[in-house]
Amino acid sequence: MEKLCSPWAGFFLPESPAAFLPSGVSACADVMTPRARSPAPAELGAGTEPGVLADPECEASARLAPFLWRALPAGSAPAARSSAGRSQGGRALLPCARVAAAAAAPRNPPGPLRSSLRREAGAFGRRRRRRRRRRREGRWRPWSSSGSQRLSITPPSPLWWITTSALAATSAPCRRTSSSTCTTRHLLHHCFQALMDHGVKVASVLAYSFSRRCSYIAESDAAVKEKAIQVGFVLGGFLSDAGWYSDAEKVFLSCLQLCTLHDEMPHWFRAVECCVRLLHVRNGNCKYHLGEETFKLAQTYMDKLSKHGQQANKAALYGELCALLFAKSHYDEAYKWCIEAMKEITTSLPVKVVVDVLRQASKACVVKREFKKAEQLIKHAVYLARDHFGSKHPKYSDTLLDYGFYLLNVDNICQSVAIYQAALDIRQSVFGGKNIHVATAHEDLAYSSYVHQYSSGKFDNALFHAERAIGIITHILPEDHLLLASSKRVKALILEEIAIDCHNKETEQRLLQEAHDLHLSSLQLAKKAFGEFNVQTAKHYGNLGRLYQSMRKFKEAEEMHIKAIQIKEQLLGQEDYEVALSVGHLASLYNYDMNQYENAEKLYLRSIAIGKKLFGEGYSGLEYDYRGLIKLYNSIGNYEKVFEYHNVLSNWNRLRDRQYSVTDALEDVNTSPQSTEEVVQSFLTAQNVEGPSC
Q: Where does the signal sequence lie (predicted)?
């Protein structure tokens, strides 16, 4: 008897439905209503063998559908079920899930929902009657490709259903609709997220089952292993796209173990691809030390291929290495490797790889203050992602976040807020719930809103997004995860400004103490991950210095600022933006609180010089330096200088009004005047003319 098997289902061991359920919930009578269970054996027709189901996909869907129903947000379930039941090519992705969900629905649903359930129940009844008629006439052979035998199967578990559905959706080509969206993937991400939010650990169970299955087939032939590797790439890619990095890492590690069992050239190519995917998820999960080991392993396989006269494209690998070095604040090395990645871009590369390389190269150019190059790269990446994936795709939101990063660093703060908001809207629509991608978008929007409203003091919106980011991350990840360091830092900055403007001393002290605890926690996480001598650690020292100034602990503040300046100067040079920021903060401390006017004047002038050199006369940070100098000269009685800098500040205000008029930043990326090949060639040509900068 042949056993039922989808193209992927054979790799996954049957699991109990209880593995998917929150603790304390039974997988039998407590969950499945009589209407949601499979038909009794007597309903299967004459001659049906024990264990043979008339519609096994109905059985699997019936088991899981009640949880999908309950997980979906109120009011959205009917539409979600209706569209989720359609997939590429017209084949039902979630067969009979709508009817099973209807069986688990309340007895008296609202009017529109009641009508929808009746239609679906009627359609299901018609299909069942049609199958019975064909069975009586001898024209029905369930699940038999040849029509000559009946298939003996075991009832699929929810794991079987959700795995085959996920893999079918992720491996199918994304056919762009008129709105250029991939609806199937969007709905599947939402279903996964809804289940995870309700305690159904779908991602963990899938990763564990795949890993266990791979250990069982270690002694099988090469074809079985190759099929398992393909399944692992699809499953791991889906989990990675959804932000479940730990589970994706487990899947890719299992694939890598299968690749290492055969020391042959085809498996070397597979191993390189697996290393690239593994490096990506480890970067996303802040496992930078393991990421470095993964890159070294990939290089080993690259060397093996080179010795045998074979070459693999290295663009994706170098792009991920650039992301790793950027996250560790090794900006010179990141810039070098982004150039190498750009050299590897060809017309045959997948668009996703090209977009990712352009994004990483743009970020590397931003931190190296190569703003013209960064603008060209990120605008083309945004255009490419929107044109190929659509305006509702997660990859498009990735490019928008990096576009917002560029705008924030070139001092176009207002537009960066709008771009970050657009990216957050997309991620919420795709993932929803407590997802790590949504959390990072909240954090970026919180910081840009904080900078945008710094002068006005209206931080409610920034605080909301910072707290949302922290809430999501702490729900998903351990309390000592590095991703929390950045979110806590942003919230601490906001709380400090709110405390300064607070007229209640008790509330002020409470907010400052909370900010202090957040800054210390962020500093410890950064030191644990990067060590003392790192730009991220220096930023936390600088933030502590500002906080100590607000807490009137001036000696501690001076110590923190000096430490931050020393680290930044050694890592970034004397004239970097980060150095100017810390220099300006120390000047403010000397000017407003320690009355060291001579030292403050030197530091203000140095900060102004760096700001003008990098960003021009209209740089927003110059306002605080100009106001600081006006206060300083007024304190020492130099009224001629006071009058001079009043005029300078007035000219700066007029320049800002002309320089940054309100426009839509996305209008610039609706079209691209250059092709990808021209953008790459322009970047490399400019690099050759200028020579190495690192």
A: none
